[in-house]
Amino acid sequence: MSQLFQEAIIISILASTIRIMTPLLFSAMGELITQRAGIWNMGVEGTMLTGAFAAYLVATATGSLWLAVLAAVVAGALMGIVIAFMTATLRVDHFIAGLGLNLLAGGLTLYWFQSYIQGRPQPIFSGFQDVAIPLLSDIPVIGPVLFSQRALTYVALLVVPVVWFLLYRSRYGLELRCLGENPKALDVKGLSVSARQYAAVMLGSAMTGLGGGFLMLGFSDRFLADFTAGRGWIVIVALIAGNWRPKGVLVAVTAFAFLESLATHLQVVGAQVPHQLLLALPYLASIGLLMGLRFRSGQPARLGIPYARE
Amino acid sequence: MSTALRVEGLTKRFAGVTANDDVDFDLRRGEIHCLFGENGAGKSTLSSCIFGFYRPDKGEILLHDQPVHIASPMDAIRHGIGMVHQHFVLVPEFTVLENIIVGTQRSGWRLNAAEARQKLKGICDGYGIDLDLDAYVWELPVGRQQWVEILKVLYLDAQILILDEPTAVLTPGESRVLFDIVRKMCARGMSIILITHKLVEVMQSDRVTVLRKGKVVATLDRPETTPDELARLMVGRDVFFTVTKPELAPGETILAVEGLSARGFWGDAVLKDVSFSVARHQILGIAGVAGNGQKELFEVLCGVRRPAAGSIIFKGEEVAGMSPRAMMDRGVGHIPDDRFREGLVPEFSVAENVVLGWQRNPKYCKGPLMDRDAITGLAREMIGEYQIATRDEHVAAGKLSGGNAQKIIIAREFLHASGLVLANQPTRGLDVGVIEYVQTQLLKKRAEGFAIVLASEELSDLFNLADLIAVMFKGEIMGIVDPRTVTVAEVGVMMAGRRGETAASKKRVSA
Residue B472: what pLDDT? Predict the structure, then answer.
């Protein structure tokens, strides 16, 4: 292999790492907000899928990608209301609520999709294109990797410091983290725990939905059954691996995206490895990680435990 | 003296149970007024109504002789009522400052810590409270965590403070400091409601309102009453605080522990070089604030936790590292501290709990099946013998009161134990009457020739029952002392980490 070819491959791997990671980043930051508020939302997969489907629907119906983005956000927030209603109001087991939501989303999106196309060939749309940032995108290596990406990618990278600021420097963040650590501390000050949980889950799920929508609008032109293909589960693993901290989650998401990008490129260059194995790489990595990971110091103390006054 | 708060004819019912029945109560400005009563007497319900956690079904709450409507803790706080809960409501992962300010800021996006810090500095200086506002709460010992709770209330400018069993987790020394500061608050015009079932706390107050079964039995000026009178009013009959312990010469050594160490989940040392021995007819008391290794010690002794080093000789046999089942088979009875989580299975019936752990015993099974008749017979026998108040043996154990649940555990462990009983906090949270019963049962076993290891946070338990008291602090034994020659204050100092002159350390030197 020539040196030029090697360099092109490396740039391509890195650029696609960033591409793959940004939808995950929206969803992971959303789930981070949800979980820091004490709600262990297992419905990430379903929320992303619903966001993706809503984006597809609006993109093909109106032709406006930004309206489609909005639709994904709204769809995510609606899923958030369902999760919040089940966990904060009905105090259902968080895992069961999330798993139920995933099944519901898988079935409903398919049903709506079928009724939308009604046997016609499915409409397609043309998604977001790369926006090269002038000057910066001309820098060798870094330019094509970082500064020649989809518009939402730049937003996604900004979301990390914004979420960090929200969690650690705003009074809302202090209350939100308090929900996850000891909601009673808010209750005894006369503040509504469930209202704050609703707000947190809706904000978090809206971001998760946006992640699904971006996955659709940035990297596809059509809807397929099980479109998100387990990325929602990767998000949950990334949260655990990132020890529930924005920076840690960023690192974890990047690592998963890199593995996926690597797997795709190894197929292209024709490595002597069965491609099924390569495709399974990120998922195998997450299983290995969960088995090896005992370090959970950042896990909110009351994560997944419904709050009730005794 | 003016009235800060008055409760008139307050009634609160829960699903048919009347927790407060026509309660009248008044709190004068600047006084410490104690609400005194057993578990379930209605103290907590009354304070929860005042703090806005519950809404009374009937009756009125008046502040400065004006009726007020308190629908939530928010209303209570607005009216200057603050509460320090028995189980602290703190976020260990937050700093002291964050714990105090969370949820108090009403405007702006950014956390405004500087202003809060200023105000808190003023409060701390005024009361002589020395607390690092930037320390994480998990770093603080329990005694200091209580200051955080008190600062939370002072920060919100409370004029009325409800203290719910404030000394439950404090050493005697810490309790004294607490009451010094509470007195300072009173001097500045604050009024204190002190909720307790402990006589030592009652004696710190100015007036006492005794509750029994949801009703006010009496309101008394504290200097004009006696502990005996208060206890009689609380329980409704005479109570004997000192069970009589006969002098018995210790027999041969039953349990000898030498150099025992154990590690926690994170590899931290939870037991460090613990040595002691207990003989027939002997009760070894373990004193210490909860969380100083007592639980781990009992877990190691009954086989649930593996020791990292050291030896445990039971009746001449090395048993360190044996399984819980092997320990049970050898006759070690264990009364764990958390009765509803480790002592029994709350969802199981009384009968199932009585036989729990011995279901493999041929007496209670027929091949792979449980012998229902035998188990029922046993349960009925135990219900009678140990006066367990239950409708029948099929009631779920979780439905019983703490005292009756404890009796199930005692019945089961006493039935099978031979030689050694390990009792961790057997009287925790129980009413005076049941405490007396548990103490009597332990003394009975002692008379029968058992060796008993008894851990208790209640020094009165230990001074009543124990032949020797070992004081634990951070997984170590600070000293083993004779209750006949040592004072409560001396034990208190050791509980806070000072080493005492001990039988064990003397032995170490000579060995």
Answer: 95
CB contact under 8 A, B83 and A181: no
A198 falls within a domain: yes
**Using CA atoms, how far apart are residues B259 and B271, in angstroms rounded to an integer?**
9
Which of B416, B437, B460 is the last residue before a domain boundary?
B416
Please indicate whether, in this complex, the C-beta atoms of B73 and A177 are within 8 angstroms of each other. Answer: no
Please check whether residues B198 and B73 belong to one and the same domain: yes
Q: What is the dihedral of CA A34, A35, A37, A38, to 10 degrees?
A: 130
Measured between CA atoms, how close is B199 to chain A, in angstroms?
A: 26
Task: Give the residue numbers spanning the domain of B467.
Answer: 240-331+420-511
Domains contained in chain B, number: 3
- What ipTM goes with this model? 0.88
Query: Which domain range does residue A72 map to?
Result: 3-121+152-292
Q: Summarize pLDDT for B434-459 with one digit per residue, the tens.
A: 888 999 999 999 999 999 999 998 88
Please say whether the beta carbons of B45 and B20 come within 8 A: yes
For residue B74, give the nearest of A189, A292, A205 by alpha carbon: A189
* Same domain, yes or no: B377 and B485: no
Radius of gyration over every alpha carbon of chain A, rounded to an integer in angstroms: 20
For residues B103 and B159, state if they share a domain: yes
Contact A169 B92 (CB under 8 A): no
For position A51, which CATH number holds?
1.10.3470.10
Same domain, B347 and B476: no
Each residue's pLDDT tens digit, A46-86: 999 999 999 999 999 999 999 999 999 999 999 999 999 99
Q: How far apart, in Å, are the Cα atoms of B333 and each of A110, A119, B169, B320?
A: 60, 73, 27, 16
CB contact under 8 A, A171 and B99: no
Given a contact cutoff of 8 angstroms between Cβ atoms, the answer to whether A86 and A97 are in contact is yes
Name the residue among B187, B13, B152 with its Cα closest to residue B77. Answer: B152
Smallest Cβ–Cβ distance between A191 and the set B103, B111, B156 belongs to: B103
Chain segment A175-190, per-residue pLDDT in tens: 999 999 999 999 999 9
Query: B244: which residues sit within 8 A by CB, 6+ positions away?
Result: none
Chain-centroid distance of CA B189 in Å reads 31
